């Protein structure tokens, strides 16, 4: 059995975890255990692709949503049949860990090893994002955001981050509301269409984004559908008034808020409208977003996805 951990140890934040993880894994598992460390943005994509093509059995992301996003994209870019993909796992040590909230994954090393030993896996869906301008394909495991969210993500990527992730995210949301100009956008699926001024849209495989905001309470990881939440021409006051409900997973009743589901949707805009995937800024509309049912085996205890 070959297990590879892909670790995002930015700023040495996992200094206490890694010695324990290394010692315990080599004690528990008799097969080959390897630790690979990311050194730059998108490095986990390269490492995961190589690990997949080198036929590892379990590929574990140690980090947050962004690290998991890159690992997933590395697996999907590998040149081997999907039937030979490794089982994916996660130790959620990021700043947001929104996918882990949906999947019910905790930071317990012991629980992760128990899942590996018992081969407790479930098939989960992936999202596929095709950007028309760059002809790039990205895969996402949690949520694609369109509009305000990508601008917040991009501004955070360019900031120093000295204020801490929680306050920094809230601060950039407020700045985004004050500076963001809503884009005229249209989206179309096989059974519905929408167009108008857009504040924020989420196309969701998971339920949470933006540090525990339950934007898509109906989302499930293995139902072959994407949930779509559209926040149209809302003001900052409308958003802040309903933030408590969003945190609790309560759908918002408002003339400018719409909920749909789809297996594929086309997003179009005549002006530059940003897109992020799993908290990573990826480009601008137009784009086609679709679901790949049961695309991956994921380490998870049995239960509803």
From TrEMBL:
The keyword Transferase is assigned to this record: yes
Its cellular-component GO annotations read:
plasma membrane
Return the InterPro entries for the record: ATP-NAD_kinase_N, Diacylglycerol/lipid_kinase, Diacylglycerol_kinase_cat_dom, Lipid_Phosphate_FormReg, NAD/diacylglycerol_kinase_sf, YegS/DAGK_C
| Signal peptide extent | none
Organism superkingdom = Bacteria
Obligatory cofactor(s): Mg(2+)
- Please report the organism this UniProt entry assigns to the protein: Lentiprolixibacter aurantiacus
A single GO molecular-function term is:
metal ion binding
Instruction: Using the record's annotation, list all stretches that form the DAGKc domain.
Output: 1-133
Asked whether the keyword S-adenosyl-L-methionine is assigned, the reply is: no
Gene Ontology biological-process annotations:
phospholipid biosynthetic process
Q: Tell me the keywords, alphabetical order.
A: ATP-binding, Kinase, Lipid biosynthesis, Lipid metabolism, Magnesium, Metal-binding, Nucleotide-binding, Phospholipid biosynthesis, Phospholipid metabolism, Transferase
Protein's name in the database: Diacylglycerol kinase family lipid kinase
């Amino acid at each position: 059995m070959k297990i590879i951990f892909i670790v995002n140890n930015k700023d040495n934040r996992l200094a206490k975890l890694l010695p324990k993880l290394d010692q315990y894994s080599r004690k528990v598992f008799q097969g080959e255990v390897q630790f690979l460390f990311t050194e730059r943005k998108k490095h986990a994509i390269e490492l995961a692709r190589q690990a997949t093509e080198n036929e590892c059995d379990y590929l574990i992301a140690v980090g947050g949503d962004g690290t998991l996003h890159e690992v997933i994209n590395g697996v999907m870019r590998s040149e081997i049949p999907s039937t030979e993909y490794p089982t994916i796992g996660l130790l959620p040590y990021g700043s947001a860990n929104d996918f882990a909230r949906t999947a019910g994954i905790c930071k317990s090393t012991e629980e992760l090893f128990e899942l590996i030993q018992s081969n407790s896996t479930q098939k989960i869906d992936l999202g596929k994002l095709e950007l028309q301008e760059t002809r790039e394909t990205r895969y996402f495991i949690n949520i694609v955001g369109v509009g305000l969210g990508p601008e917040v993500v991009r501004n955070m990527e360019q900031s120093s981050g000295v204020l801490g992730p929680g306050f920094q995210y809230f601060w950039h949301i407020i700045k985004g509301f004050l500076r963001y100009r809503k884009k005229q956008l249209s989206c179309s699926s096989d059974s519905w269409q929408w167009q108008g001024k857009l504040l924020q849209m989420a196309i969701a495989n998971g339920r949470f984004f933006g540090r525990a905001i339950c934007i898509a309470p109906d989302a499930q990881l293995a139902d072959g559908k994407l949930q779509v939440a559209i926040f149209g021409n809302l003001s900052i006051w409308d958003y802040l008034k309903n933030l408590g409900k969003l945190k609790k997973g309560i759908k918002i009743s408002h003339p400018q808020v719409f909920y749909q589901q789809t297996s594929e949707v086309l997003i179009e805009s005549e002006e530059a409208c940003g897109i992020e995937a799993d908290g990573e800024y990826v480009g601008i509309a137009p784009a086609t977003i679709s679901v790949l049912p049961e695309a991956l085996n994921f380490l998870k205890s049995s239960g509803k996805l």
